[in-house]
Amino acid sequence: MSSIKDMLERAVELAVKKGASFAEVRYENVYSTSITIRNGAVEASASSVVKGLGVRTLVNGSWGYATIERIDWPLIEKAVENAYKMARASANLRRRRASLAEVEIVKDKVSSKVKIDPSGVPIEEKIDLFLRADKEARKYDERIKDSNVVYADSVVQKFYMNSEGTDISMKIHRVRYGIRITAREGNVISPAYEAVGGTKGYEIVHEKDPIELAIKVSKRAVDLLHAEVPKGGLTTAVLDNNILALIVHEAFGHTAEADLVLSGTILTNKVGKKVASDLVTIIDSPGPEGAYGWTPYDDEGVKGRDVTIVKNGVLLEYMQSRETAALMNAKPTGNARAQNYAYPPLVRMRNTYMAPGDWEPNEIIEDTKEGIYLKGGIGGQADANGEFMFSVQEAWYIRNGSLEKPFRGVTISGNAIEVLKSVDAVGKDLKLGFPGICGKFQSVPVDGGGPHIRCKIIVGGRR
Amino acid sequence: MEISLEEIVNKAVRLGADEAHATYIESRGYSVAINIGEISNVIWRHSRGLELIVIRDKKIGVATTNDLSTSSIDDLIKRALNMANSSPKNPWWSRLPEPKPYPEVSGTYDKRIEELRPEEIIEIAGTAMKEISSYDKRVSLRSGVINSSISKRIIANSNGVYGEDKGTSISMAFVVLAKEKEKVGSFAIGHRESRNLDIDIQELSREVAEKALTSLNARPVKSFKGSLIMGYDVAMQFFATVVAAMCGDNIWKGRSPLANKKGEVIAVENLTIIDDGIMPAGYSSSKFDAEGSPRRRTVLIERGELKNFLHNTYTANILNEEATGNASSLLSVGPSNIDIKPGDYTFEELIEDVKEGILVERFSGHMRFEDGLLSGVAKQAFKIENGKITYPVKECMIFGNVYQMLKQISGMTKERRNCYFVVTPIVRVGNITVVSK
Questions:
Q1: Which of A103, B116, B223, B348 has its CA 20 to 30 Å from the CA of residue A58?
Q2: Distance (Å, rounded) from C-alpha A171 to C-alpha B213?
């Protein structure tokens, strides 16, 4: 390992010697296992090793990035040279020179806390467990037509060094599994889905038993078969933690990423303005430890801090990289993340959630005269202007404070800001632990959540 | 790599595998990323990867690595064998494919792309930026990416299959924003892909800029039922969805509504679709597929009749059909290049006959092959009334069924475009429901 770090240090020195005003090197090695089970068969299972290094240089205010998969000095030298040449060549085309917000020089070593190292668990045991979960799911009811169980674990060792003197080692474990079940009766198809994950070890499967979860998801899919499709329209809605996590991340969160803000989103030029109801506070956090998107230091060596995006309805700040922070005269946040060594970092979310309020969650439902209770999302899309459309897993008609009848095929749509402005109750029950893979040219693991809330949202019904 | 692929495969068999299959991919190239109208990054990539699949007593194990040192390759073989030993038997497995001669494929390697220097790629980005900003003062290039790559692929298996192929590609995509004073802006996405250094960057830049401008001042549309004209990108999604239903793995697993429809007329007479793995300069063209079987042409739909499905050796054995060179992996099937036979109309003629309709250039939502559901948002669209494009439409919802639409195609253009792996005309379909949001 020390010889790798020596070469990283030499690479940084070489870049500076050539004339880069800033240089950083990221080395990673990743060991991972993935298993995909579908309808009782192991559809795919693989063990993978990915190693490599990326060099980023800033020359005359322009970036160059070079990546290689071999730790071999002549190739590293070539990578540094290419990164430097490309940065210099593109500098002439830039109208604005990139610069970096100042951050503390850090020398640190961090590691996720793990009780059972996933790489020490025999693959046979993992395959057997998830095959059983899949079997129990399908056994639950003959109307279960499709079952899909996916498991993945990884151990990532990262070294980061830059020309300012920052030197960070990180070892991060991740374990995640997801269960997707489709039930069918006649022409009615009802999907249900749930995922569990964290920057933890294999103990996750003991904390949240996949077999129990598989049965729970199957039950949900089957119960939904007899639900009605709701009438559409603007509706008073109580949202559970799960669907709120999706809205906070997908419909709202991206619009607060500084690179997109600079390009133009619904939150551009709105710092200090009201973008949500007084009851709404939204935070993107580097932690807590164990969350699927745990990012103690980002891929620019910046120590992560909480970003209070919205406080009591007012937009306070955006998520930043060092470059966007310099452009906007903002304090760096530690949100620059890369999928792996082969990519330069981009502004990305980490663990994004709405802060808790005062209400007991059941009181919110009891207080609702007429409306809809929405639980869990299952896909959709959103835009920089805040417009979104998501499919909801479960829903109930609320009448006089009680859940009266279930609905299926529910979609929600609208504008994230309008929805947040309409929030009139926020629960105390903050829940995190809704892991996902966020795509934005590159994939990164994220987490999120929130409490139960009540708002107004456009509901649609799809058969 | 100090050891050849054949030696790796032989070693795996010596160490206990009944069969082994190895794939090596090496690629390098440049990317230029544009963000907020500026070059935000210039990237040089060099990567290599090795995948080993071993089968032992019908149990399949897969391992990959990008560390090609001898010790890492030894570890790779061990991990693959361990994965196989730990997996349940796959009762459907029969055998790895046998060696067969490979076709010659032309137009997939351009030396100029291999020899591209970073300054040249940066210059292409600069040209695009300049073209767009000088086209009209209301437009600006928001973001974009230009990628060039050269890659080499080698495959070997324990039956003696061995193949080497190399190819180049270049692709570009731009997002252009048009804004007029205080009004809400509109944006358009344009892209091109080629195996050769022949993309007309000026043409692409002007096209995207114009597309963004024509979407300014979009108005909401009242719900209606009428003709849908699918622009190239939407037609590409449509045909890709239909072809997914013809892939052997989807057919076998009961996911495709087309499973029992071979020989039936499932589309209009004008529609002929061919999967062509050896199309000159085709986006997906290569000598062999992911299992090392030769690529070829397969007629999927001929004059509206469903003729064939796509298979790899695995699904062909299970369904007692012929392998067609469409392995996307040993166990899964995918199309190569989808070639849609051109229609008879010019674009103007296609619009002329439409009383009330919508031209959709960009669609975001569901197009499901499992049940044909088409439902989502028309993100860049134009109203057509009495044979003319009248105004750009604000986001609205579109509903339909892909299989019904196959029978309701009322016209296609003579001109086609290479849209990723689909060579498609613009397509007019009757009777779609459009709902204002």
A1: B116
A2: 49
B330: which strand partners?
none
Residue segments in chain A with a per-residue pLDDT below the cut of 50:
none
Q: What is the pLDDT of residue A417?
A: 96
Residues 6+ away with beta carbon under 8 Å from A263: A384, B35, B36, B142, B143
Closest Cα in chain B, distance from residue A331 (Å): 21
DSSP 3-state of A22: strand
Which residue of chain B comes nearest to A233, CA vs CA? B437
Q: Is B32 on the interface with A (CB under 8 A)?
A: yes
* Mean pLDDT rounded to a whole number for chain B: 95
pLDDT band at B20 (very low <50, low <70, confident <90, very high): very high
What is the mean pLDDT of the segment spanning B278-291?
98
Which residues in chain B are closer than 8 Å to A98, comparing Cβ atoms?
Answer: 40
What's the 3-state SS for chain B?
CCCCHHHHHHHHHHCCCCEEEEEEEEEEEEEEEEECCEEEEEEEEEEEEEEEEEEECCEEEEEEECCCCHHHHHHHHHHHHHHHHHCCCCCCCCCCCCCCCCCCCCCCCCHHHHCCCHHHHHHHHHHHHHHHHHHCCCEEEEEEEEEEEEEEEEEEECCCCEEEEEEEEEEEEEEEEECCCCCCCEEEEEEEEECCCCCCHHHHHHHHHHHHHHCCCCECCCCEEEEEEECHHHHHHHHHHHHHCCEHHHHHCCCCCCCCCCCCECCCCCCCEEEECCCCCCCCCCCECCCCCECCEEEEEECCEECCCECCHHHHHHHCCCCCCCECCCCCECCCCEEECCCCECHHHHHHCCCEEEEEEEEEEEECCCCCEEEEEEEEEEEEECCEEEEEECCEEEEEEHHHHHCCEEEEEEEEEEECCEEEEEEEEEEEEEEEC
Domain stops at, among B154, B186, B213: B213
pTM score of the predicted model:
0.93
Residue A463: the pLDDT is 60
**Token digits of residue B227:** 């003709």
Is B365 a residue whose pLDDT tops 90?
A: no
- Answer whether A94 sits within 8 Å of B39, measured CB to CB: yes
What 3-state DSSP class applies to A131?
Answer: helix
CA distance B338 to chain A (A): 25
Say yes or no: B88 and B222 in one domain: no
Give residue A78's pLDDT: 94
**CATH tag, A2-224:** 3.30.2290.10
Do both B114 and B194 map to the same domain? Answer: yes
Residue A313: its H or E element: none
pLDDT at B181: 81
B67 vs A49: CB contact, 8 Å cut-off?
A: yes
Total domains, chain B: 2
Q: According to CATH, where is 3.30.2290.10 located in chain A?
A: 2-224
Q: What tens digit of pLDDT does each residue of B370-399 get? A: 989 998 889 899 999 999 999 999 989 999
**Percent of chain B whose predicted confidence (pLDDT) is above 70:** 100
Per-residue confidence (pLDDT) for residue A1, from 0 to 100: 54
Q: How many CB atoms lie within 10 A of CB B136?
A: 14
DSSP codes of every residue in A82-100: HHHHHHHHHHTT-SS----
Residue A68: which of B36, B46, B395 has the nearest Cβ? B46
Residue B170 in tokens? 């270049």
Residue type, A28: E
For residue A207, give the DSSP letter.
H
The shortest C-alpha distance from A96 to chain B (Å) reads: 8
Q: Which of B213, B248, B269 is the last residue of a domain?
A: B213
Check whether B282 has a pLDDT greater than 70. yes
Assess whether B71 and B90 both reside in one domain. yes
**Same domain assignment for residues B276 and B328:** yes
Q: Which range of residues forms the domain containing residue B419?
A: 218-437
